[in-house]
Amino acid sequence: xxxxxxxxxxxxxxxxxxxxxxxxxxxxxxxxxxxxxxxxxxxxxxxxxxxxxxxxxxxxxxxxxxxxxxxxxxxxxxxxxxxxxxxxxxxxxxxxxxxxxxxxxxxxxxxxxxxxxxxxxxxxxxxxxxxxxxxxxxxxxxxxxxxxxxxxxxxxxxxxxxxxxxxxxxxxxxxxxxxxxxxxxxxxxxxxxx
Length: 194
Known about the structure:
Elements: E1 9-18, E2 23-30, E3 36-44, E4 48-54, E5 60-67, E6 72-76, E7 79-81, H1 88-100, E8 102-114, E9 123-134, E10 146-151, H2 153-162, H3 168-193
Parallel strand pairs: 4-9
Antiparallel strand pairs: 1-2, 2-3, 4-5, 4-7, 5-6, 5-10, 8-9
């Protein structure tokens, strides 16, 4: 059965939260079927870059920090807000350096993910970094309090399977990076057989 899905038509919009980190609009809309949807809320937050950084031995560089929303320390990937008019790749490089003191020789764009397509317009721009070199100390903002560490590949896989990486973006980006590394390894194996 063919059905043409239609975008919603915004009838009215009112900004109810307006801060640097969060904007919330209350909208009244007509959905694709012409039904009025009143009091629909859309969140706008700055987009961010997220970095999956494996070293040559397949150890993963992670950060740990307290997250007040869930009220505990989480194991995450280096990540941070993309500044206005900043390219996502530039933000990824900047955040990796600021949070860990590392730079990377090679960068690959993995994908962009919508945070929650229903009520948010925020995206995560996910990158893989390799050829890592420590070049500086951490350069954290006043509001940041985090540590970084290396986790061996087998431990990363175990943590993925047991749900110890709690954030959806982190899981998706690590799985995609592992898939890409496996594909590259298969391609190199194929080349050596020729």
